[in-house]
Amino acid sequence: MHTVELLPDPATEERVRAAWRELAARGLPSLAGHRHPTNRPHLTVAVADALPWDARRRLAEALAVLPLPLRLADPVRFTGRTRVLAWRVVPGPGLLDLHRVVWDALRPGDGAAGHPLLAPGRWTPHITLGRTRSRAASWPDDLLPPALSRPWDGAFTGARTYDSVTRTTEPLG
């Protein structure tokens, strides 16, 4: 599987990494402990089984709109087999347009299904802060870093793809 991810500006990346470190310091699940070299703050826009050359060309054209404004709002939690704490990204019109174009670029007329939670209209833009499969672990509101409750404005300035088979990334755009 290949992801299409947007990358934040350096100040926003450091803000997210600081939240990771603070969560870890409070004994909460955090991506601070994920040491793989590809681990960095990002917004997943789409996934695909493969990224053939024509799809990469369409993605490069779509990503020419970068930089785009980025606004981090409040924390959001996702439940399921893996529980996730994330920083919600407020989707402005430019981000929603880019999301639709990327979605369409990866499914040109063939009706191929992507991940349903990433589909336009269902997508919840977010930057992951922590994840766990433990049912006992949680992120109580009173233990969350105060920075998570304060809005943050930055920009998405780059893009990459992550290959889950090779565990490598490549720049996009």
From TrEMBL:
SUPFAM superfamilies: LigT-like. InterPro entries: Cyclic_Pdiesterase. It comes from the Bacteria. Pfam families: 2_5_RNA_ligase2. This is 2'-5' RNA ligase family protein. It comes from Streptomyces daghestanicus.
